[in-house]
Amino acid sequence: MSVKVEKIPHEIQPGRLDVVRLVQVTDSHIFADPEGCLLGLNTRDSFEAVCERVQREEWRPDALLATGDLSQDASPESYQYLADYFKEMGIPTYWLSGNHDNPETMELYLSNNKVFSAKQLLIGHWQIILLDSSVRGKVHGNLAVEQLKFLERALKRYPEKHALVSLHHQPLPVGSQWLDQIGLKNSDKFCEVLERYPQVKGVLWGHVHQEFNKHINGCQWIASPSSCVQFKPGSSDFSAGTEAPGYRYLNLFSDGRIESIVHRIDNMEFTVDYSIKGY
Predict the structure, then answer these.
(1) pLDDT, tens digit, for every residue of 243-262?
(2) Which of 5, 65, 123, 183 is 20 to 30 A distant from 117 in Cα terms?
(3) Is the pTM of this model over 0.85?
(4) What does the domain layout of the chain look like in residue ranges?
(5) 10-264: CATH topology
């Protein structure tokens, strides 16, 4: 069962009227155990290194999007750690769930005066919509009917605002055979909704632990690296990548343009066990 979407959108004011500045942090895979490792990499260490780099951005983000697989074991302890850490960062944070997460547990723990469960954000000239593509007990994604209806209602209500839609699972193939088998299963229905609303300027996701950026008919389709282990682009079978942990910084301009850049934590050593063939 997915968390119900809110009827009232959350609204914040951007730091500048001509641009909305966002950071996407995704696939942190935090464990209840502080020493928990994914493929030999301590996920709290890499998550904190990423967040410390975010804090050093020249322009402070207006909001942070945490786009799923925030926990590896869906434990209360992992979500409490994340809630406390995001609160300490002081950036308004909005989350959605991934296939490793438990939406109900997230709802209980990921909420304070800086971390929000709202799935519709109005900020400047933009509307940001966060969808739950997780399916209980499955690795692949699917958008339930209520999620698709919520998406359509939100887009219909604010036709004057540019829209960025975010979810966990990839709605487009990214070129890795094993990953593309566990993406969004009903991407056709998702895309049918988007095609009716030309104000959608971007679709943003996690799940694939790698960079992806493609322009299609005036819309950018974007994936970002994980804050922990990366997946090797173009691989047929499961394979960890050699790239460092990272995150994405996005500028959403008042004319509908999206500019973004990936930052990686390349000033410290991260050890990954490449002999492990799954996660």
Answers:
(1) 999 999 999 999 999 999 99
(2) 183
(3) yes
(4) 10-264
(5) Purple Acid Phosphatase; chain A, domain 2 (3.60.21)
